[in-house]
Amino acid sequence: MVSHNSYSQDFSNDLQNNLDSLLVSTPQTCQEIDKLLGSFTNDSTALRYIEQKSFQKKYYSGQAYALNNLGSIYRDLSLYTKSLELYQEALKVAVEADNLEFRVYSLNMISTVYRRTDAFKSALDYSQDALELAETVANPSSGLKKSIIVSLNSIGGIYQMLEQYKLAIEKYEKAMVLEKELDDKLGLAINHLNLGECHESQGDLVQGLKNFRKALVYYEIIDSSTGKIKCNYNIAHIYVHEGKIQQAINILQSSLLKAISLNDQKIITTIYINLGWALIRAEDYDAAETNLESGLALAEKNGFNVEIADANKFLSELWIKLDDYQKGMKYFKESKKYEERITNTLNLRYVNDMILRYESQIRANQLERLAQENESVRLKLKKNKTMLIIIGISLILLIGILYILYRQSQLNAEKKLLTLEQSMLRSQMNPHFLFNSLNSIKLYIINNEKKNAVHYLNKFSKLVRKILEASSQREISLAEELETVELYMNIENIRFSNEINFKIDIKDDIDPHLIKIPSLILQPFLENALWHGLSSKDGIKNIDLEVKKGKNGFIEIVITDNGVGREAAEKIKESKLLKRKSVGIDITKERLANFSRDYENFFHVDIIDKFDDDTNPIGTQIVIYIPTI
Asked: pLDDT (tens digit, 9 = 90+) per residue, 579-626?
């Protein structure tokens, strides 16, 4: 009890100190208040106290802030009525405080509540009000920019739900411009995912896949497990449409294991249903039924109406394919029943009409505003010709500044690329590899195996020469790269007592001499497979390197090992006293990202964990996508 009282006293003292600072400085933005309140921004007791004291001191911005945060706490608990009351009260206080940022924030939060309670017209109205109000500011603050992003994404989400994909894409792309300004990687990841879904729904599978892969890159940067899983099952969805059924099934099965480990019921349900759909296309009807029934059970348990409708729709398709029309009709009726629950046709039609009227009004306002601006410019030019000269000089100065900035950016990029190339060379020529390779050759000499010593010494010198030559070139042919890694594998195999079975297979009549790639990109992946995948494995050790044609002008380089898998390798690595730090792959990924700027498409790397039927790891597969157009 004494300890609890002491903690309560400390809590009260900290809160009072923070509140005193707040009431003295009276900041007017969310960002400034967040800094002053610290951990109390999500404490309902503290927020009520702050709201009362702010009201007494007539510090209305602080009061609006506290009411908005209280509303968010109730919203996250699904107590929408109470949440809505608090947001509406915060809006009134923000109006009284004449604080535009908090007014916009409150309007957005009210829209969020209405959207979650399926009141789409009200949600759309409040988001549009928030956006129009925010756009009256010529130079918005970062806080106001975030609110504009929320408004655009909210409107885009409603448009997407109503299948107005063109309008949804327009809103998402506008939001992404601001997200890039704010370096909001999570926002960019989410919006690339949204864009991918819109393009897929329009039947544009190429753009859909491109956006899903970009979203995956951003989720990898911020290391979001949930985001990566969402991207992968969306990529699998595209693959099913493209007829790559087995690739889709592999991705979905791998994603399912990861989703189960995260215990995200929504994602698990979605993957089960998508996997069932893919298995129908693969004509594995028993497995399809098992997965669809699992997805349906989870959806019904958690009240996921959209997923219930989808599971029933695919089960109906399954039983019709099996000529059981009675079951097919039963599931079809269930699907339609839930679709009607999700969508109130009259309400959506009314909202669609509102959208069309709103968009028409926006365009009319834009035309009117442009006409006024043109007239104003014409009058100004007529009254004062000197303005043209000033504008001309300003433009020349601006172009000069932009050119200087562009050149500076180019120099920085070249410097970064040079640093990466140096890092890659250090990675390729690391002292451990050189020392161990020479030691192995020395052992042949000591054992009087002159032929082997000369043979491997020639290979070693040739490898060193090739690495040094390649490091001075930005790109080389795939044939040269394959020759380099074959030399590398021959030398490394000495240290593995020639236990490694390494094979290169070039398919589809590909001429590796005509394909250009960044120099020295394959060796880090082979090194990783050797030292993390195969070094701890007993029995047969295989590494296969396959070059084949992919879709959309890509060449795929696939490196497959039958090692212990990434998870087991990580555990073994952690248990070692001397840990082997692998930086080559990270450097290679960054080089590929840098190199992609000169191509219409972009280099991409997928790392796929392989499992047997009992979900035991049986190796790792690296897929490197090389653009050729």
From this structure: 444 545 666 667 676 665 555 557 788 889 988 888 888 899 999 988
Fold exhibited by the domain 410-627: Heat Shock Protein 90 (3.30.565)
Greatest extent of the chain over all pairs of C-alpha atoms, in Å: 97
Tokens 């829209």 correspond to 111
Contact 159, 152 (CB under 8 A): no
Tell which residue, 76, 9, 3, has the closest CA to residue 44. Answer: 76
- Measured CA to CA, the distance from residue 161 to residue 348 in angstroms comes to 10
Look-up of token digits 């007239």: 375
| Residue (of 394, 314, 352, 440) closest to 121 by Cα position | 352
Q: How far apart (Å, rounded) are the C-alpha atoms in residues 494 and 170?
A: 58
HSE of 470, CA atoms in CB hemisphere, 13 A:
30
DSSP annotation string for 497-548? TT-EEEEEEE-TT--GGG-EEETT-SHHHHHHIIIIIITT--S-EEEEEEEE
Q: What percent of the chain has pLDDT over 90?
A: 23
DSSP 164: -
For 224-343, CATH number?
1.25.40.10
- List pLDDT tens digits, range 135-186: 888 888 888 888 899 899 888 988 888 788 898 999 999 999 999 998 999 9
Helix, strand or coil for residue 628?
Answer: coil
User: pLDDT for 26-37, tens place per residue?
Assistant: 888 888 887 887
Q: What are phi and psi of 590, to 5 degrees?
A: -70, -40
Residue 345 CB coordination number (10 Å): 8
Q: For the purposes of burial, counting CB atoms within 10 Å of the CB of 594, is it exposed (0-12), middle (13-18) or buried (19 or more)?
A: middle
Domain boundaries, the chain: 224-343, 410-627
Report d(CA 335, CA 318) in Å as an integer: 13
